[in-house]
């Protein structure tokens, strides 16, 4: 029985922190050696962080990354390390280096480059054209990078035909709702179809709007989970793989034998023989499988991770939030406390003459429950002065949305004043429903350095608040029940101006994420006039969304990198 001990280093790299990432990689190599691992694999582009975007256009960045991979190689002794980096051979490649005893033994270049959604790899990288197989004492191990494994016809198929018992796939696979299950289902299919084990290591952490969920996993040739890492946390996953057992399984199944009979070896297959002896194992590592999260737990964890890393990686410490007593600011403040600690979160109440007594009470109760420092800065007198100064120009004009937006912009000014004075970053509190239809004030409640709920629909905001309260009730119950309102004029409610959020969110989802036409949305049972109203609002507010702060992506089609609509655009659905 030949047991290979593999370690998957699920690390949180920071884009551009070449030295810091390198030190972390070396630390994990040493940790894996302490556990007698034979191979340690790191995420895709672990040295540079993912995605490095236009840093890849800087020769100095590429060269520094190459220096780092040689430094890591020097530390990889008596263990095989597979590390994601940027290779340079005339062009540049998304690559995986195989390191052993101080040397770079071989380099694999990613074959399939994603160029959809949030991915722009064709903009930067040349595509690899070889398939790598490591030969260790006669046992064969395939290597691949992220997108390589997603295609039905992929390098893994050839590696299995060539005799691989195990394939190691290194990744930077960003999170969105449903992605974890989708990914694991795909890996089970690949393992079963090719009669191999798959060790899948994923990046973890936040990078601007992207969040990487970790959930690194080892799958057996029957599709079973052999080991699974933590979600949204760094982790070192250890798994013992019986290579002989996999080979015996392959011998008893005709599928690979039949494929081999028809297979003609291509020149692009590169087999690398490693001078390495698999360590004798006296004790088998106990199976470790982390429990799956519920959807609400997943999303909430993604928001915490995205906020925490954006603040810390950009060298901020404290955040400030305008507290209205509503659901969005309440949830934003709660996430901020969970991510950063109560001592790093400041709340500001900015009541006007239209702010209800209940809203002030709810904001203060929330602050008390969270234990955050809170300031009250009334805006009524400032608003009166604005109106007084504008009166000569506004002579003969009736009050309208202008006066409502003035209140929001006064609040934005106050928040930015606190930000400038104390170095606190302002967290915008708007959600995806509002951003979609432009139900927000530019330079007012849209002000901020980061938007936690930017990709969270209003209905989901309520679900997340209820989930968080199920852990410990911090958001006042009245906030969960009262009609949402901007409170910019007497009797105002959001749903009277828009639609009930349950209906609104469905229309937005179909139009924004599924590209379904107004006609087809109406055919699904929605009022045609309401559908047209919402679509017009979405179309005309692209200019606002472009000026909104960056926020955490949790859906398959967030505003920004995913959905890229021109601002100047004469095409209309209706």
TrEMBL record:
Deamido-NAD(+) binds at residues 405, 434, 544. Pathway: Cofactor biosynthesis; NAD(+) biosynthesis; NAD(+) from deamido-NAD(+) (L-Gln route): step 1/1. GO terms for cellular component: cytoplasm. Keywords: ATP-binding, Ligase, NAD, Nucleotide-binding. ATP binds at residues 322-329, 429. GO terms for molecular function: ATP binding; glutaminase activity; NAD+ synthase (glutamine-hydrolyzing) activity; NAD+ synthase activity. Residues 4-243 form the CN hydrolase domain. It is an enzyme of class 6 (ligase). It catalyses: deamido-NAD(+) + L-glutamine + ATP + H2O = L-glutamate + AMP + diphosphate + NAD(+) + H(+). GO terms for biological process: NAD+ biosynthetic process. Its EC number is 6.3.5.1. In the C-terminal section; belongs to the NAD synthetase family. NCBIfam families: nadE (TIGR00552), PRK13981.1 (NF010588). PANTHER family: GLUTAMINE-DEPENDENT NAD(+) SYNTHETASE, NH 3 /GLUTAMINE-DEPENDENT NAD + SYNTHETASE. This is Glutamine-dependent NAD(+) synthetase. It comes from Persephonella hydrogeniphila. The gene is nadE.
